[in-house]
Amino acid sequence: MTMNQEGYPVFKGLQKPLEFMGIRGRFLTLAAAAIGVSFVGFIGFSIALGKLAGFIAMLVMALVGLVTIYVKQRGGLHNKRRAKGIYVYKNLRRNS
C-alpha cells in the first residue's frame, strides 16, 4: 500500500487479474459448477449403481469439466469469433 499525492492509500495489488490454482477470472464459476455437478453425479450414481461407480463417475465428471476449462482458457478470457473465409469490404473510402 502506498500513498498518492493527496494522501489517500492506493492498493496496487487490486489491479491484478483474479486467479486461483491456475484457473482465471470467469472460469472460476465454471470450475465450481463442474465440481458441483460431479458431486451430484456421485450421489446419483452411488444410489443407482453403488459407491465405487459413483466415485468413478465423480472423478470422470470433474476431470472432463476441468479439462474443458483449461482448453477454453487457452483461447483467452473473452469469446472470440474466428470467421473462416475471405471478406471483401467495398466503399471503405469515398470516391471524390
From TrEMBL:
Domain of life: Bacteria
Alphabetized UniProt keyword annotations: Membrane, Transmembrane, Transmembrane helix
Transmembrane segments: 27-47, 53-71
Annotated protein name in UniProt: DUF4133 domain-containing protein
Organism expressing this protein natively: Bacteroides finegoldii
